[in-house]
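Sanity check

After download, print the first record. It should look like this:
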Amino acid sequence: MDDIGEQPTFGLPNETSAFEDIAKSDQRISVVNESRRYGKIITLVSGFDKTVDVKAVAKGLKAGLACGGTVKDGVIELQGNHRKAVRPWLIKQGFPDEAIVD
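Expected structure tokens:
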């Protein structure tokens, strides 16, 4: 009780985190590779609902996989072949394994 303005925590999940967990379980995420100009390979991660912050997921993927990328029309485009590395990263972030389709 050091600070008067401090809110007590009771071990209950935060409302936003509970909704994010439910939203993550309802996804059907697809991870595919595509060849672009001059033989460049990109990894496309798609299938996110409107409830998931795709830009935040893309930012985490780019940092976690040490690659560049962008978000276009709700699809994450990562530079390079990261098909095998995306699944473990998404699972670590709370997306269920059965929701990710390779």
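If your output differs, re-run the checksum step. Summary of this record's structure: The longest strand covers residues 29-35.
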